[in-house]
Amino acid sequence: MKLKLHWQIIIAMGAGLIIGLMSRSYGFDGFVSNQLSIVGDLFLRGLRMVMIPLIITSIISGVTSVGSKENLERMGIRTFIYYMSTSLLAIVTGLVLVNVIRPGVGAKLGLEAIPKGLTANGERFIDTLINIIPKNPFKAIVDGDMLSIIFFSLLLGFCITIVNRKYRDTLTNFFQGLFEVMMKITHIVLFFAPYGIFSLIAKLVAQTGTEAFGPLGAYMLTVASALLIHAFITLPILLIVVGKIRPQKHIKAMSTALLTAFSTSSSSATLPVTMESIEENAGVSNKVSSFVLPLGATINMDGTALYECVAVVFIAQVYGIDLSFAQQFVVVITALLASIGAAGIPMAGLVMMAVILNAVGLPLEAVGLILAVDRVLDMLRTTVNVWSDSCGAAIIASKEGEKLPIALKG
Fold this sequence. Notes:
The protein is mainly alpha-helical. The chain is about 75% helix and about 0% strand. The longest helix is centred in the first third of the chain and has 38 residues, at about 30-65. It is globular and about 70 Å long. The N and C termini lie far apart (about 55 Å).
């Protein structure tokens, strides 16, 4: 029986740790750092290869699939506003905590010097806003300007939904087909993920020893704390204030779905359980759940977006870089916009990480460090993703006038 990819990656990380430690003890750390590391470099090149075309096609196909006339109706607008608002709140929560706790400051992880082209000052905030609109979208693609790429992809996807039906259907099918092709290519690249991650971890440990994993405790605490704040403070406040719903009753109603999300680390795999729980236990109609929840699985990634932002700022801190306000704004907007298309991508967290690191000029090699503790955090952030989807469904149902058994009394 073939092991699932996440188990292969966990085994690869353990093997990389062992080989890295052995290389330091038996004197072949130079081989691991210089020759064996080539496997990790090839894997990172594969990620770079698929990153931009995958994001473009996933965003366009995502927008066209949910951008039909239903998207203009009251429920669709409310749903979209809810998902964008909660994702933004989650990202801001993560950024506040990582800037307060500063888990990467002073960490000695043996990473290379500050990458060329990245400075602590960055561009002006107003320039960041202006440059979101590309002068030449093809040049933006060549240069890897992620904010401009994402903006143009969203605009193109939206405009496809409002042209003549004959052209709309043709273009929708074209980009959906292109997205499916990019998914196949991504699957091929991810087939080599265990080997690439093994190489990255082995190189990291060969160069630094186990001291590389010390600062990760503070990093994990920062991510977990931000996720808990969003899950148990921000979303319950929205349930009470906007939806007039009791958070305790709602979380009890969704307990099966949340446990499934935690154990599988997959929002898509949990979707049938989420829909059953929200309808049977929370009393939300199928009309609402069948629209809000699948849409949430496409564009709503509160936990993942929060995690990615904390990780990117942590990596910058490790390099000794204080990201400017403009650069942190880029992190926020990139994570928010990328989340629209990234949910349907295999290992979406890894792809989003590559996108955001690229947007602020940080090297992808630091991904190996973050992946060392990714599995536990993946379980937590997926649970938050599903919890946010369910809260959205309950709130939208309440605003649509449905009488829910989980509603506040009187």
